[in-house]
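Blinded run. Sample ID left blank on purpose so nobody reads anything into the name before looking at the predicted structure. Input follows.
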Amino acid sequence: MRAKIRAAKGKRPIAYLAFALPILEHHREVTMQASALPTFFQHIEQQLAQAPDEIRRLFHGRGRRWEGLEQLTCDWMQGQLVVSIFKSVDDAFLSELKSGLKTLSESQTWQQRQGEAIHIQYRYSDGARSEVFLGQGNLSPVVVENGLKFQLTLGKNQNSGLFLDMRYGREWVRQHAKEQNVLNLFAYTCGFSVAAIEGGADKVVNLDMAKSSLARGRDNHRLNEHNLNKVSFFAHDIFKSWGKIKKAGPYGVIVIDPPSFQKGSFALTKDYQKILRRLPDLLTDGGKVLACVNSPSVTCDFLIEEMRREAPELKFSYRLDNPSEFADIDEQASLKALVFEVK
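Blinded prediction complete.
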């Protein structure tokens, strides 16, 4: 999830409740069970053995396919494991988890993959506290995804700098960016921008309020030896920058990947429409939009219906698949990345 969800005080609350009702069950309270951890370790070792030599999620408990492990994830950072716990657990669970991780670090699979460190991040705690449980942790690793390099930050924030469930989205941009001007809204660390330039984009405009995230985006482009003359970084509030955005266009590809909620600047079900209604004036003929929602409480219908209402010139084409490692028992609760086209 890109950010915490808060109920929006919109003008159409009944309509938005309809979008959310099918998957409100996603929010039911679950208790993590130490007795389920053998399944976790069996899956981790199996996935680690066959993972490619790049960054990957190995275990996605939040897809709710493993009872008793719903608040646990594990990511492979090419030499480092990051195990994240999203809800408070009892001492017995934590003790069993650490014991199993130590055993994993002594396994043949770990040695073959040249494992160096294991981190545990307590995502439920203030500041998302993290500890290097085993080994010598590298808190600023450079990782590879689809041949592209990205600088991450471990142990400080909830998010490391790259949303792994969006791998296919970045690949989509790379495939559709050739000779296009690309607009990347809510750019974060500019993963879409890196993919676009690698795919042959003429120009990319990145917009995000966080200057530090955009600075990391510049670093990511430098890591991949990209021509920064083709890339712009606007550290602005999107709703106060439409003139600047339009002046830099028009765009053949626009990416919208907002947080579900960002205090003082964005609430998904209240503010997304303000962006959608601007799209026709920003796009070229035949332009494409990748519009994303990562709130488990909002279905694809939200985007499709709001696009029909606010920008009828854009027609829904298809939804991108999510990587198989992010499978969810309800596909509407997982990442929704929808492609729209001017037709």
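Unblinding after everyone has recorded impressions. The mean pLDDT is 90.
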